[in-house]
Amino acid sequence: MMMLLVGLSPCEAERVFAAEPERKTEPVESVAAIRLSLDEALAVFLKQNLDLLMAKYGIDSAKGQRITAALFPNPSLYVGTIGSSLKTQFGQPSNFTRSGQVITMVQQLFEMAGKRGYRIESADFGTQSAEASFEDAVRQLGFTVKDAYYRVQLAQRRLALAEENRDRFARILEVNTIRFKKGYIAEVDLIRIRLQIIDFQSQVIQYIQEADIARADLRQLLRVSPLTQLVLTTDLDYKPVDPDITSLRRVALEVRPDIRAKRHTQSQRVADLKLAMAYRYPDVTLGAGYGVQGAVGPDLQNQAMVNLNVPLLLFNRNQGGIVQAEVGVQQAEADLMKTINQVENEVEVAYRNLSQSRRLVETYRAGVLDDARLTLTIVERAYERGGATILDLLDAARTSRTIQLNYIESLYNYQHNFFLLESAVGKGLTS
What we know:
Elements: E1 4-6, H1 10-18, E2 33-36, H2 38-48, H3 50-70, E3 76-82, H4 96-99, E4 101-110, H5 115-181, H6 187-222, E5 229-232, H7 245-255, H8 257-278, E6 284-293, E7 302-309, H9 319-384, H10 390-425
Helix pairs in contact: 2-5, 3-5, 5-6, 5-8, 5-10, 7-9, 8-9, 9-10
């Protein structure tokens, strides 16, 4: 990916965004301006977003649990001494070196009934669930990035419209100020124009603030300096799309990462149940050792020994752990079914919203938008010739502004619903 950064050479720009998140945890250095298309913004987001970085650490943690699950129990070393109360032939007590005993033994626990294998199986599913959860974080936060990107574009389009109306009436005010001085119009008409300019100016300020807030949200998602100016190059435009709802439902159930994460969690709970049931069988501890005695002692002063330790599971056969594991499986199954139901409803609602917003945009583009602009132009010219009143002009200006503003918002809503449908399906759609 190649970024175009104002004030930096292409090589320097590439170095700014080339670092991997694991190796670079500090924000990139602020620059004068960054030009970003939507795809470039998503690429920066994938490299630098801190929420994604934290989600990725969850995968590493799960891999660590997998390593722990595969480890064998450590052997134990036992060293002991035994003293003697024997007396010498003269009736004196014997010292330790002559009649004592030193025992050294190594013991190893062997897990039976496949416990280690079940732990590994559970940890493997846990890792797969963490990976799917990371993909789901990318899905959800990716929608947030796209929406923040187009909220900036929405505010800019609103701002451009408000500035256009303000400048239009500023020119009208200049002309009518001269006409008022010559006595051609009443003062109240001049006041109405001034008030309308103030109204448009307040809208300009409002949309500047909205654009600043949206840019701040986008900078936060991209993890760039607040001093960085973002220049967005992907316009808020209409690209019609009419996907097949049946195909979308099928694809969503196949590829949604949150469904895959819940399925892996369910499989992990099943493995946990098998592990809990395996604890009904005892583990075996084997030991081997060697004993060395002093000169005064039994006939065999050097002895080898073997130890076998098997607990008798008479009372505790992990009955409670098995019940808890069974409940965990049932909870995971219910959670999976809940997620599937949510996904199906999300796809359905997002598809319907996209269809409705597409119809609205097409209605505006069918001629309503041009009619509103043309009406304002006609009334403005008629007002200049004295064929319309100032109230007619103000009414036409408000109507034109409302129609154009509604069209801009319908464009944003259409794009918003398009991204929602992508997020609901869990896969990019061709627009």
